[in-house]
Amino acid sequence: MKTKDNKINLKDLQMDELKTFLKSIDEPVFRGKQIFHWLYGGGAEGRPGGVHSFDEMTNLPKTLRQKLTETADTGLLTPIKVQISKVDGTRKYLFGLKDGNAIESVFMKYKYGNSICVSSQAGCRMGCKFCASGMDGLRRNLTAGEMIEQLLAAERDTGEKINHVVVMGTGEPFDNYENLAGFIRLLHEPLGLNLSMRNITVSTCGLVPMIECFAEEFPQVNLAISLHAPNDEIRGEMMPVSKAYPMDVLLEACRAYTKKTSRRITFEYTLVKGVNDGASHGEELAQRLKGMLCHVNLIPLNQVEETGLFTTEKKAAEAFRQILEKRGIPATIRRELGDDIDGACGQLRLGVINGGQEL
Ligand code: SAH
Known about the structure:
The protein is 32% helix and 20% strand. The protein is an alpha/beta fold. The longest helix is centred in the middle third of the chain and has 15 residues, at 144-158.
């Protein structure tokens, strides 16, 4: 995407596109490799988060740096606000975009390394009843560069490398498929971040046609499906998307996905008190998922004030988990990080800064 001053965001470009761009400004294509190195922090031993001023790219000739300054941009995102959890070191970032929208991302530390939860859209149009992210609808899709900058900005802020990415922030990634695909390719680019496909997880509310594309294009990336209900009746109440893609159709697409990729699917199931957390719901869910290569991730609802919905208590969540396990469906209860800073699932919201005016 070009900025207001008509500059091209280099972080929206794949390596081959960067080379084409260099040709267009009469520069040799081998410079692409050097630029990638700077933009993405130069591999494991390099500088977390990369550099953002062309003048810092010291192995580029001055003339090229000048041309880049005139025509291009590094898509820098700087946090307007950083909230740090006192409990677990989770960091929630609020970033302002050039057009006045604001997005959030969450940095998390785990035993196995650092992880970032990335937003894929400013807002969301899926309208799930229990989620804060879609309450004000969709503002716009994020570009691949805006997604990758969320990771890089967190690396710059923490001074640490990030090796896991979950696309579980604001937005429905499969409603922004092309940019999501560009983002994944950028993460995996050997001359850039060189992240393993297996360290990336994409979560969808179940846009069936995109599940098929995804299996074809990214068979190594982990797929999580927000299921949240054992049948269409309850799912329909919680998630409008289920009217377009009923559970039978969705689960059939999941079976086809596993057949094609041999990968285990994670089903996310947000437990909402008195809505989907009864023993009969657990039994029905186990029945529906029987024989599938899957895992259920139970998420006790993070309460969002406006929804009037309540969370399932620990004991009841554990009972639900056991119903699934007894029926042969592996299930875990998700440990929530960042709850004290509203950084947990479904609590990320669309922000608008500066009254939505361009900065
Ligand atoms: N749109 C995608 C990506 C969002 S991922 C999707 O639906 O999968 C965020 C996960 O948190 C989803 O499983 C979502 O359903 C879940 N979630 C949303 N609101 C929540 C809440 N208030 N409490 C717990 N989980 C929630």
